[in-house]
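Render this sequence as a predicted structure.
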Amino acid sequence: MPVIDLTATPEPEELPVVIVLDEFEFEDSLQPTKASANVCQGFLMVFSNGKSPHTAYLFALHDTLVLPWDYSIRNGVMTLFSRTCAALADEGLQLCGPCQLLSKNETLERILTRMDDGVSENAGYAYYGFSALSEVLRRRTQQLRISELRGLNQAKKLLSKATVLFDQKRLLMAIASGEVSRVDRVLSIGLRQKKGVRGLLASYVAAAEGHYHPRSFTEEEDMKALLLWKLGGNRIAQINHRASGAPSVPYLRTRSTVPPIVSSHKYPMVLEVQTNVNATLHSILDVVHSHIKSKVLHAVLMFDKLATEKRIHWDPKTNFFLGVCRQHASRTSMEFINEGDMEELFQCLDDGDVHYAAEVRKFRSNICFRFNLF
C-alpha cells in the first residue's frame, strides 16, 4: 500500500504564456510581385467554332508521339508549356523563348489543322479527339446497321428466288407426269388469269384430280368438234364431250359458222328480210353463179305451215319479246325495259288485246337478187 507524505508542499502549476499584439500588418499575397509578373504564361490554344478543349484536343497523341510540350486546362482554357520551359517570360512578353517556338512547331500546326478541318478516315484513332471519335463511332454504327439490313434484304431475296425455283421444279415434274391431257389449256388459262407458279401448280393438281376442267378450246379443237357434231349429230357430240373433254353441244352452238336468223317482234322490216335471206342463201350462191352467168338471179321461196310454240320468248340480241301475233303486236310495248313492260304484255294477253302466234300461213314469194360478180 503506498504511503502519502502529508508534510510535503505541492509544486506550483505553470501558468500559460500570453502574447499581447499591439498592431498587425496584413500583406496582400494576390498583388503581383515583380518575380511573379515575369512567370511564363504558356502558349494559349485557341479553338474555333466554339469547340471545347476537353473534346477537340488530341490527348492520345501524347502516348503515340513524342511531343515537346505539356498541357494544362483551367476554367475551360487550354495552355501548352514547352518541355524546356524557362519558367520566366522574356522582357515585355508573357512567354519564354521555348514556349514562343511552339507557335512554329509543325506537329502542332498539323494538330490545329486536323481539329479545324477534320481527320482523314485512314488516320489512326490517336489522331481523333473525343468528339471526332464519337462521330466516327456513330458513322460506323450506322454503316453496320445498313450492312446488316442490306444483308437481311439480300437473304430474303435469295430465299424468295430459291422458293420460286423450287416451285418451278415442282411444276415441271407435275407436267412431266402426264396426268393431264390438255395441260397447255390449263397453263394458258392460268397465265391469262395472271397466276404465279404456285397458282399454276394448284390448277394442274386440281385438273389431275378431276376437280377442274378447263373450258378454253383452240380453233382446231372447235373445228374438229363441229365436224363430228355435223356428221354424227347431238349424240355423237355429247359422247365426244364426255369421253375426251371436247366442247359440249351448247358451246358448239355458239361457235357455229352458220349466220344467225334475225327474229321480228311484229311486221318484218326490209332490212331484217334481207339479212335473213342473205344468211340462208349465202352458202349456195357459188353453186347458183356456176349455173347462171347473169348478174340478176331469180329464186322462188316457199314456206308451208311453219308452226310456232305458244309462249313468249325474249330475244337477247334485239331486246324484244317474241311470240305475239303480228296483227296486234303494235297494241303494246314489245321492247323489254323493265319488269313493268313484261307485266303489261301478259296483262294484254289475259285481256285478249294481243294473241300468241300459233303458226305462219302458207305463202309463195318471188324474190329477185342482184349481185355484182366483179
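Summary. The first strand starts at residue 43 and ends at 44. Residues 219-254 form one domain.
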